[in-house]
Amino acid sequence: MPSGILALNPGVPAIAIGYLHKSQGIMRELGQADRCLDISTVSGPDLIEAFARLRAEGRRPSSDAYIARARRFKRSLATLLPLLVENNTKVVVRGRMAS
Fold first, then answer.
1. Which of 5, 20, 41, 46 has its CA at 20 to 30 Å from residue 73's CA atom?
2. Which pTM was predicted?
3. What is the pLDDT of residues 38-86, one digit of tens each?
4. Interatomic CA distance for residues 40 and 79, integer angstroms
5. Exposed e or buried b for every residue in 63-84, given b needs 16+ CB within 10 A?
6. Rg of the chain over CA atoms, in angstroms?
């Protein structure tokens, strides 16, 4: 799934083959749920059809919204991270102390 996120970040249309439930959730969050294929049922013809649809549709407006949010977040981090380092602030990520 990280490759799908990396592709969508700059606006490259992507198809995900979900092997965990989080893949479908991430693609749904990005407005791309129909572009996530279930690994347990996907077939060659399914992939061919998905790529043909992807090529015809191109990038979606939801991708543009995601890109805008990601860029705002990146700018926010550029401001926040130096302050955290300067103040020796400990950051907790998903219940664990980040190193």
1. 20
2. 0.54
3. 999 999 999 999 999 988 987 766 667 777 887 888 888 888 888 878 8
4. 43
5. beebeeeeeeeeeeeeeeeeee
6. 17
- Is residue 13 within 8 A of residue 54, CB to CB? The reply is yes
Neighbours of 12 (CB within 10 A): 11
Per domain, the residue ranges of the chain are 2-73
Mapping DSSP to helix (H, G, I), strand (E, B) and coil, where does residue 66 land?
helix
* C-alpha 77 chain-centroid distance: 18
State the distance between the two ends of the chain, measured CA to CA, in whole angstroms.
Answer: 24
The whole-angstrom separation of Cα 27 and Cα 52 is 19
